[in-house]
Each structure stands twice: as structure tokens, then as C-alpha cells.
Design goal:
single chain, 118 residues, mainly alpha, 63% helix, 0% strand
Length: 118
Amino acid sequence: MFSAASHNTLCRSGNDIYMDRVMLTVIIIFILLTNGCSTFVTKNAEISQFGNAYSGVEYATLIWGTCTLKTLPFGIVLIPFAVVDITTSAVLDTLLLPIDLIKETPPNMIESGCAGGH
């Protein structure tokens, strides 16, 4: 026998299902757009770190570790973003590793972007 609660869960309206799909799509797009940001930051023209292997991972761990720890307890909300960024930066840095190994190693210009921290 079904209870009223299980009936409501099984018989969701089309609007609820649509909103769930919209939210899932927005979350997926957000994750895809923010993936590997640290690699993109370190490989840009201003502080180009081509030649410095895994500079995106280095930058991500520096930024996320420093910034997240400085904003505790609110920084806990940022931990999932840090995990995604560090993971995708590792993948992108691995894909760019052949270029980094060919290029001459530039001086390391990576520093923390947190307010008051280096």
C-alpha cells in the first residue's frame, strides 16, 4: 500500500521534472565553464607558465588552499569547486605536458590571489 508521501514522490508534475532538468543543466554548464580555470590562468599571456609543468595544479592548490582556509567556516562551501578545479587542472596540465617539456622553464610568477596573502 502506498502512503501519501510516496504517492507524491512517484507522481511528480511535469513542471517539477522540467525544473529538475533545468537545474541539472545549469549545474553541468557551470561545472564545465569553471573547469580547469587554474590552468587557463597560468597559461595566459600575462604570466605565461608554458614550460612550467603542472603550473595549473600548483596555482589551484595555492589559491584554493590559502583562500579557503582564510574564509573558514564559509570556505567549506567552496571545497567542491576546489576539488573540481584541481582535478580538471591536473587533466589539462597533463594534456599540455608535452608542450611544457619542450619549452624553456620560465621564472615562477605564481602567487596567491587572496587578499593579504602571498
